[in-house]
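Hi,

Apologies if this is the wrong queue. I'm a grad student, and the batch job for Exo-alpha-sialidase from Devosia salina produced an output file that my downstream script rejects. I'm not sure whether the problem is my script or the file. Here is the sequence I used:
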Amino acid sequence: MAIIGMAMASGARSAENPICVDCLRVRVGPPTVVRGPFPDEIDAAFSALKLPDGTFRGFSANGATYAIDGPDLFDLNGPRRAVLEPGGAGSINDCGRWLTTARRTEGAVLGFVHQERQCDYDQGQTDKSMALARSTDDGLSWTDLGTVITGTDTPRPGTVTGEGDCSLVDGHDGYYYAYCLRNSDWQTIAARAPISEPTEWRKYHDEAWSTPGLGGDATAIGFVGTGAGYLEAPGWVAAVATDPWFGGLRLSLSADKVSFVDLDEPLLPIDGADWERPAATDLLAYATFLNPENGGNTLGNSFLLAYLYVPAGLGFESRYLVLREVSLTEEDAPLPVQAGVALTRWSDPAQGGFVTSTSPLTGDRATYHEDAVVAHMLTRAPDSQASIKFVECAKDVGGRVDHILAEAAQCAATGYVHERTAGWLFAREQPGSVPVYQCLSTRTRTHFASSAADCEGLGVRNFLLGYGLEP
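Support response: The file is valid. Your script probably expects a header line. Output copied below for reference.
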């Protein structure tokens, strides 16, 4: 329980807590929809490799794992080929093999593979475990090195059992670390293996790496998420979790690999995390981190956040892979507001309309092009400044979408449909803030946002919404 308590703590740097989590400045950039919609992909953390010719290979999975090649990480919407298939009947992976991490090692690629068996998904039943695999052709074929992590429980009807959904991180101390979901209590557990002996895993239990990966007990390290990476400059492990009680994607950090502190502000706000689809809210899940230069999860101060996105009102047939650039810097003193998400204005090249949103554009809006980042919205209400929460609302106007930012009650009152929370704006100007105006296009009679009082010549100003963080 002490470790769980540490996972919820925050504050200034101290001997017990070497991370000044309140000193961190985070900015999340505009979303790029990389793949989708798919009914049978993006069911695990996305992983990627940079190939010798400078192109990239991504791995997306749902039972089978698929390889997708492209010129860069933002252009991986091409054809796929299966590289890991479910095992034979009665095997430990007869329901599927999901590649969750691909790491380059000397002369090969090491893969961390989520496995499931004895599944009856209609009844909420499956049993999870983790295996290692090795590839000498950049992930197109794999040699199974065996199962390395299993839970203490056994498969049971109508229940999810086992330990899985893990990501593998190089701790830069001679060990690989795994951060896994234990399904019996929905807590995160940790295990590690020497890089020189990657099949020899020990779980963290009673303040030591003391129990075997296969069937050993583990001490919960909190609900810190299984998507993880290693921030090389400060030497921290970063983990991200979808946490509806927290109100968004929660970033957790650890200097010792097991004691985590949380950023008090979400990376992205969410309205829910409903897995019963379709649902009234978006779903963001399987979040993880990627290095934009090589696809790995050893990270610099700028990295990529990757996640599954299912829009509100749609089911799992509409799975999208989304990437967003993230910058993380440590300041000398605590900050009054830490996290900001890009409020992006998108334009329709065909009709000339606009959408201003902090979320991905899919469906009929997938053809819109990024026009400008107006500001960064806050991801929760700040503690010490007055703020206004804005939601995104839309309605059809003459065959084109009219999309506005409004306070929640104003959506229905003005005939618009509520879509999602966009974020918060300061009610009054603050240091480092920019104004955000609602504007009206004189050509299309649709609304958009701008930080310029003249609406950048694109229309006429309606009124001031508030103040966001400068881009």
